């Protein structure tokens, strides 16, 4: 048993801007997981960390302590290398859906232990659950067998994977302490290191729809996570990618699955295709298999074949009709010109209010609710043309969704002055 400390002393130390010792960190994470440090004490400490930060050495020790709170997985017995991707979360971010089968089609296994959505960002498991019969919970035996056989798994992370993070994340969510770089970095990296992936590519989102609103803080988060991975011998690379406007043309569970299937069929919106291929290239390179062209695997249907096997292997019917919402409402352009911006956060909140997301983790989600985007930034707009279609099963939700979208759309009379942010902003390795 590690040395015991007084929780109030640990809180005071961070409150006053001091560095926590390794022994203090080990103790506080272990004691919090066991219930010996109370929620109110951990929330005070999380707020002190948010305000005063932590040095890399402290974050690394914090990450290790969270890993030790549960069990670690090991995929080294598989016949192919493994690589995973983690996105810090955005609006319309369905990239995992086409990406996992695409990378598997290139010969590298992808163990995606994913989560559910909370707040304005969607969750990968919620999206896949819009496919009739699909099952998120797999035993470890099923997970290994599917990875060996199909090469790609997207499933729920088990209770035993970094349980300290599960408890702490739920607390941060209700205490205004999510947006702390040391806490985000250790939360993500503890799960990814415990998961046992052979290499990791991070998609760090920047912009209104992301946790990190500016490039400088996104760069700092990316650097911290890459350093944490590298320090434990995990090949880790990060891309900083744009989240000022939503990714693709849909935000919402079944809507995003439909769009992902378009991408796997060789079509789909250019930004979703481009980011999927860019991340696939990084994942293959990180796994030491960069001789493959992932764009070709989308075109020749082999990524789609893996998708179908992956869905079927988890009880889903890849040919089933996806639900459509009972009611729709169009948002039309008030003037003609070029769409200058479409605010990602506003679209995320609108999709959430339409029923696509949840306010508390036990809330249900509407499968078919969400926002369809007809015009992307940089494209021409005509007055009266539908810009967005809102989808929901409860028409009473339209007014609050419309309120979220107030001021979210900007149309410029002339697009010649417009500078749009590139999709991939920077690479950190
Ligand atoms: N995603 C996580 O898993 N943890 C965080 O803290 C933020 C985003």
Task: Describe the model.
The chain has 429 residues and is α/β, with parallel strands linked by helices. Among the domains are: 84-158 and 185-313, Nucleoside phosphorylase/phosphoribosyltransferase catalytic domain (Pyrimidine Nucleoside Phosphorylase, Chain A, domain 2, 3-Layer(aba) Sandwich), CATH 3.40.1030; 327-417, Aldehyde Oxidoreductase, domain 3 (Alpha-Beta Complex). It has 16 helices and 13 strands. The strands form four sheets. It has a four-stranded mixed beta sheet, sandwiched between helices. Strands 6-9-11-7 form a four-stranded antiparallel beta sheet, sandwiched between helices. The longest helix has 17 residues, at 215-231.
Q: List the secondary-structure elements in sequence, H or E.
A: HHHHEHEHHEHHEHEEHHHHEEHEEEHEE
> What order do the strands of the largest sheet run in, or round the barrel if closed?
1-4-5-13
Through-space gap between termini: 37 Å
Q: Whole-number average pLDDT?
A: 95
Topology at a glance:
Blueprint: H1 7-15, H2 22-34, H3 39-52, H4 56-68, E1 84-87, H5 96-105, E2 110-114, H6 124-128, H7 140-149, E3 152-156, H8 163-173, H9 181-195, E4 199-206, H10 215-231, E5 235-242, E6 250-251, H11 253-264, H12 270-286, H13 294-299, H14 302-313, E7 327-332, E8 337-342, H15 344-356, E9 370-373, E10 380-381, E11 386-392, H16 398-404, E12 409-412, E13 424-428
The structure holds uracil.
